[in-house]
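My current task is to audit a protein record that another person submitted. Please read both lines and tell me whether the tokens look consistent with the sequence. Do not assume that whoever made the record got everything right. I have pasted the whole thing underneath without changing anything:

===
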Amino acid sequence: MSSEQTPTTTPDATGPRPRRLAYAAALAALEGLALVAGGVWMLVLGFTGEPDDRQQAVTGGVTLIVLALLPLLAARGLFARRSWSRGPAVITQIMALPVAYNLLRSDSVAIPAGIVLAVVAVTALVLLINAETTRALGIRGPGNAGK
């Protein structure tokens, strides 16, 4: 490769950010913030309320907050057009689908939350695998690594 060419694996950060990429990043950030809020809520109930098991409430809250790091880091990477960020963002959406399914199967107020989570996860997946998003992140398809 000559010194005049720029490698195609780095995204073109000079142009405007595609809306699909910005929307995907916003959805990932929203999911991360929802996990943080849920974790904090569990911690507060664990410390101030009367949970069935205080240790379980605290552990669940801390776990949710730690799990929030994946979509939050992915959202930051997507906003910055880092190609590595699509993998964690896709993994987050794939992990959200079974959670949404379980919420939908419940007989409670969790059903609307399941609907919202399913819509957000599927929408984010569609945005993340979109060709425009892939190009903006500088990701090349299989067989194009040497080109």
